[in-house]
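Colleagues,

Please find the record for the two-part complex below.
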Amino acid sequence: GAVVSQHPSRVICKSGTSVKIECRSLDFQATTMFWYRQFPKQSLMLMATSNEGSKATYEQGVEKDKFLINHASLTLSTLTVTSAHPEDSSFYICSASRGQGREQYFGPGTRLTVT
Amino acid sequence: DQQVKQNSPSLSVQEGRISILNCDYTNSMFDYFLWYKKYPAEGPTFLISISSIKDKNEDGRFTVFLNKSAKHLSLHIVPSQPGDSAVYFCAATPLTGKLIFGQGTTLQVKP
């Protein structure tokens, strides 16, 4: 159990366009979902935390108007990168936790390339 | 301000021997620690965790040790297998649930 999927796995978009990434918990209800970003050869950096039905909590330095997060149900969260720029190119990973568990289960990640 | 540190960027071990990956933390509010394994272009896979009320947790070939006074934890893999070759991240979390990751250690297990 505890499978998390992400879609798409990779996406290339033009500068100025918006891209939506979906994160789904397949076999459990996720009380909380998290969005991370990883730059090459670096650690995972938490961008935001979202709970179903409420606004996401963004980490310091993350633009909430640029990275829109919607947590519409207990199994789905979306991250929309608006007006993407080449510097937004990165590996985006979501995770989900269930119940009162402290473990987070990660999706396979989405490689975003902005040209 | 790196609250979780993995000071060894890489580690090479012979198959069958023990792999020891180390992690240090600075925040005394952390009360739960986790180890993840990650392959390139994939999401991390949860391996093992430990609560601050324990000093050891074992799961098959994986054992995590926690030394709270030293703010240090380690992951032991024995025996190491070539399939264990990956990047290993330690992570720590306070009650808020936010995971703080270390920089990762690349483990290579040679046949």
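The radius of gyration of chain A is 13 Å.

Comments are welcome before we finalize the supplementary table.
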